[in-house]
What does this fold into?
Amino acid sequence: MATMATLAQEKCTACHKNAPRATEAEIAQLKPQIPDWKIVELDGVPRLERTYKFPDFKTALALTNRVGELAEAERHHPALLTEWGKVTASWWTDAIHVPHRNDSIVAAKTDEIAGQFPQKIHKRSERVDFGCRRVRRKKAGGISAGTPNPPIPQSRPPLFLIPPDDK
It folds into this structure.
């Protein structure tokens, strides 16, 4: 049985329509080697998917770029969703529409790359401070009292101008 380190050292093989599919036994053998990856189905095609969490957008973007370099080197390309503080990677073999060993190889390599970046575990209870000041309002007789929102200036310029029809 190959270890994850061995799996990450393997190279993807060329895949074609008649390529051998991963058997249930092989999937069961490889899954523990990439334990944080889920098998999800999208549009009838099973794929490996994992979300990585980071302390900021810059780190998430850096992982996205490194995984892109991996994809080019392996000639096996994922779907990557980059958001503030997280990247979701999905690997699948489009040529055969079922799991293939290549997907596990690049998933293990993605884990190896992600391990080089600072990870952040977001907790539901964690409060994100965007620098906004919260005003606490007191209720008086069922009506909110406190500092009202400042009035919106009426002399604002329009957000965009529509040119008149010259026809």
